[in-house]
């Protein structure tokens, strides 16, 4: 009974290939009738053959935002935290092929053993959010905190969606990594590292996850949060603002989740009577505040699995996952929160041709696109990751 429909064409929408056209622009190409498979069907056979030839030598991880054609070959699917754990739990596989983005492959390299090699099928699969916090900018920001006389009170908490260099910075300064599912626990831990009322958190790089967790889960006020803009001297803040803040939020965001707006929520409530709005905490504060539920990728999947048949859901997260959820839950009415398309363009860089190329290369004894984190960076990143794994109640299913 699923009534999932592709987002409608709007003037601002990126039209899906073959699903309508916009004569006034270059967007979209109309192809009446059934489109053939997006990739050469022969590639499916080649992927199967290469994987079979590699056997236990290879373990393929697939993030929930990956294309269906890639997910089909994943040995395990998950969010970034679960996949990092899974990589660490496979010491017998010499090759880990990571179908996700660069920061995830880096975390896998940090958490796997020396003899294991991590491969990212397309090196262009980066993450715009992770790129919003360059290590030189973060080091400069720390100097600003020292100059403002607050650095001793600050504990860094960095989202998993950050480069290995940022994770290492976090480890060096006594902080922790967090994911969207354990951000509250991580913030509680960080504030407890300093005398009551004195602690501050520098939250990197996603301002929205930091703000949503601090305000909606810890009960801090919006006024307790300041936004540190790395492009401005002293983050665009005064010494007094830094001294009074409890949460220093880095000015970074996810370009995918940042597209959902309060209008998207109001609009879907009008369109779909009784709809429950479920969004990822990377969405803006006003969107998360207006939603009925908020949760990490894994929680979104679990919530729909437990939802009563016939209920209606509008999901605010990446489109590959929402389409899959709609297909896998035909007893529910699953719709995309926004009318415009919202794929993660870098996640989508990993396609079947790149996966086949990396698997066939491995089968031929050639390691392509290996991700290697510098040993010193890896050491300190591991310190911060281990701190996260030691937080109370952290499991892969959180
Ligand atoms: P999770 O995988 O932790 O849910 O994060 C969402 C995301 O944006 C991944 O890039
Ligand atoms: Fe980065 Fe957002 Fe894409 Fe995740 S969905 S990889 S945070 S840009």
From TrEMBL:
Stated EC number for the protein is: 2.5.1.72
Tell me what reaction this enzyme catalyses: iminosuccinate + dihydroxyacetone phosphate = quinolinate + phosphate + 2 H2O + H(+)
> Which segments does the entry list as coiled coil?
none
Determine the domain of life of the protein's source.
Bacteria
Per UniProt, the enzyme's principal EC class comes to: transferase
The record's InterPro entries line, in alphabetical order, gives: NadA (IPR003473), NadA_sf (IPR036094), Quinolinate_synth_A_type3 (IPR023515)
Compartment annotation: Cytoplasm
- The answer to whether the entry has keyword Metal-binding is yes
Annotated binding of iminosuccinate, by residue: 63, 80, 159-161, 180, 280-282, 297
* A Pfam family matched in the record: NadA
Binding site residues for [4Fe-4S] cluster:
127, 254, 344
Q: Which UniProt keywords apply?
A: 4Fe-4S, Cytoplasm, Iron, Iron-sulfur, Metal-binding, Pyridine nucleotide biosynthesis, Transferase
Member of which family?
Belongs to the quinolinate synthase family. Type 3 subfamily.
Function as written in the Swiss-Prot or TrEMBL entry:
Catalyzes the condensation of iminoaspartate with dihydroxyacetone phosphate to form quinolinate.
Q: Which NCBIfam families match?
A: nadA (TIGR00550), PRK09375.2-2 (NF006881), PRK09375.2-4 (NF006883)
What name appears for this protein in its UniProt entry?
A: Quinolinate synthase
Q: What organism is this sequence from?
A: Angustibacter luteus
> Quick one: which gene encodes this?
nadA
């Amino acid at each position: 009974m699923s009534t999932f429909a592709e987002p409608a064409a709007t003037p601002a929408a990126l039209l899906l290939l073959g699903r309508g056209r916009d004569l006034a622009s270059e967007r979209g190409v109309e192809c009446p009738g059934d489109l053939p498979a997006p990739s050469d069907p022969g590639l499916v056979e080649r992927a199967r053959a290469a994987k079979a030839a590699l056997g236990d030598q290879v373990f393929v991880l697939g993030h929930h935002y990956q294309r269906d054609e890639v997910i089909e070959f994943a040995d395990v699917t998950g969010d970034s935290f679960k996949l990092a754990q899974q990589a660490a739990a496979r010491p017998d596989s010499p090759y880990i092929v990571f179908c996700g983005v660069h920061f995830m492959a880096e975390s896998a390299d940090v958490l796997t053993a020396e003899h294991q090699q991590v491969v990212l099928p397309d090196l262009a699969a980066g993450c715009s959010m992770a790129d919003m916090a360059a290590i030189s900018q973060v080091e400069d920001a720390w100097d600003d905190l020292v100059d403002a006389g607050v650095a001793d009170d600050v504990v860094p908490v960095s989202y998993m969606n950050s480069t290995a260099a940022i994770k290492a910075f976090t480890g060096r300064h006594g902080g922790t990594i967090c994911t969207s599912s354990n951000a509250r626990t991580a913030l509680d831990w960080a504030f407890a590292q300093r005398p009551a009322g004195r602690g501050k958190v520098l939250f990197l790089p996603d301002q929205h996850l930091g703000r949503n967790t601090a305000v909606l889960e810890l009960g801090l006020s919006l006024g307790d949060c300041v936004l540190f803009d790395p492009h401005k001297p002293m983050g665009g803040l005064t010494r007094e603002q830094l001294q009074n803040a409890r949460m220093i939020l880095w000015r970074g965001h996810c370009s995918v989740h940042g597209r959902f707006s309060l209008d998207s929520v109001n609009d879907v409530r009008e369109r779909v009577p009784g709809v429950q709005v479920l969004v990822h905490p990377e969405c803006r504060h006003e969107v998360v505040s207006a939603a009925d539920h908020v949760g990490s990728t894994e929680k979104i999947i679990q919530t729909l699995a437990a939802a009563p048949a016939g209920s209606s859901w509008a999901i605010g997260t990446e489109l590959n996952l929402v389409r899959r959820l709609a297909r896998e839950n035909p007893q529910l009415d699953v719709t995309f929160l926004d009318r415009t398309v919202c794929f993660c363009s870098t996640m989508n860089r990993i396609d079947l041709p790149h996966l086949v190329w990396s698997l066939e290369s491995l089968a031929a004894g050639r390691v392509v696109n290996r991700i290697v984190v510098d040993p010193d960076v890896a050491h300190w990143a591991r310190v911060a990751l281990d701190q996260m794994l030691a937080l109370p109640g952290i499991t892969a299913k959180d």
